[in-house]
Design a protein that fits this description.
single chain; alpha+beta; 2 domains; 9-stranded mixed beta sheet; ABC transporter permease; transmembrane; membrane; transmembrane helix; ABC-4_Integral_Memb_Prot
């Protein structure tokens, strides 16, 4: 701005540009401190929001309230009947589906492993998963993946996937979900029934029973007193008693239990993160406030001298507002960029991929708070300067 003589010598630009250039150098340390403090506060609040957002999305993207994994056929029917009996007794409307799949490794880094499922089985689940029914031809497949998977990469229609069994299929469609409804550590590969039998060979399919309860597929419940949480807790207790009594290797997953467990586990971190964000937000504003007031005497003398040669009160307010505004808002911009750069790899190691939305929400909150501090400091600062004008 100093190099543009035309812009520099227009109105009061010379005054505030020169003053700001001096203050940026003089206040470099305080600006650095404010930026670091704001960044730490942004990171702590963003981490809390990102974990909570991912937990909520995993709940909402999983249409199946109960998942029962059958590894021990001897007790499967008994436990399956116990689940149905409890749901029927409580008057819950549900549909259960039997899923058979094959776990296979691949030779691709983008999709290191897949769960192969036959199209006929997948089409029974498609409506509940909010996906179209699949009808792949022989040698073709539909891929459903999630960024929450390790080594997640992107594949496009036309790419080929080679399984460790030696079979190769061509991907015709790719669907990406933020959280898969089941088997979340491997992508889902949908093939036609003949291809499934060919890939299966002599291997034994894994068996999974999933329960779709339409009345529970809304917003996540806020506490443990919801019907889903009460029934889920009772079902979990009953199935655990069966496992202890019969020593069965079957396992189960209750959606609401996983959601509430993570929510309760992060409750303390949420309080700490928000408290740190609030404390550091006030601290950063205080740093700038006291720094401006230490310079008030020198600024008062300068504006008093300038008022003698014709600087008006409105021009003085404009110049001071620009200087104060940049000192308050530049750290917010830099801390937002820094938080985005730092949080993405950190959250990625935890398979938390909701980064941008939490960071921008936190940055907007800090911007709102900083704007409030700005107007408070500006009004007091200008009030003191106004008394020095002639």
């Amino acid at each position: 701005m100093k190099r543009s003589r035309k812009a520099l010598w227009r109105g009061t630009n010379l005054l505030w540009v020169s003053e700001l250039a001096y203050k940026m150098k003089d206040n470099a340390r305080i600006l650095f401190l404010v930026t670091v403090v704001t960044s730490i506060a942004s990171m702590s609040a963003s981490f809390v929001l990102a974990v909570d957002e991912t937990n909520r999305k995993e709940y909402e993207n999983n249409p199946f309230a109960i998942e029962y994994y059958s590894f021990d056929e001897q007790h499967t029917e008994q436990e399956f009947a116990a689940i149905n009996e409890l749901l029927d007794r409580e008057g819950v409307s549900y549909r259960s589906f039997k899923v058979e799949n094959l776990y296979r490794r691949t030779v691709h880094d983008a999709v290191p492993s897949v769960e192969v499922i036959a199209a006929s089985r997948f089409n029974q689940l498609a409506a509940a998963m909010n996906l179209p029914e699949a009808a792949p031809d022989s040698g073709e497949a539909i891929l459903i993946s999630s960024p929450a998977q390790p080594s997640h990469g992107h594949m496009t229609p036309g790419d080929k996937i080679t399984l460790d069994s030696g079979h190769t299929v061509s991907v015709t469609e790719v669907f990406e979900r933020e959280a898969l409804p089941f088997m979340s550590w491997a992508s889902i590969l949908v093939v036609n029934d003949n291809s499934y039998r060919t890939i299966q060979g002599d291997a034994k399919s894994s068996v999974l029973f999933v329960y779709h309860v339409p009345e529970w597929n809304s917003r996540p419940p806020s506490g443990t007193d919801s019907p889903e949480a009460v029934i889920g807790a009772e079902l979990k207790k009953r199935l655990q008693e069966n496992r202890e009594q019969y020593g069965t290797s079957n396992s189960f997953s209750i959606r609401i239990g996983s959601y509430l467990s993570l929510k309760q586990a992060t409750a303390l971190f949420s309080f700490i993160g928000i408290f740190i964000a609030f404390l550091f937000s006030v601290s950063s504003a205080s740093f700038l406030y006291f720094k401006l007031y230490t310079e008030l005497a020198a600024d008062s003398k300068m504006y008093h001298a300038l008022s003698k040669i014709g600087l008006s009160a409105s021009e003085m307010r404009t110049s001071a507002t620009l200087q104060i505004g940049l000192l308050f808002f530049v750290p917010i911009v830099i801390s937002t960029v820094q938080t985005l750069i730092v949080m993405r790899p950190v959250l990625g190691t935890m398979y938390v991929y909701s980064v941008y939305k939490p960071v921008f929400i936190v940055s907007a909150a800090f911007l709102a708070a900083q704007t409030l501090y700005f107007f408070l400091v500006r009004s007091r600062y200008l009030h003191r300067l106004k008394r020095m004008t002639v």
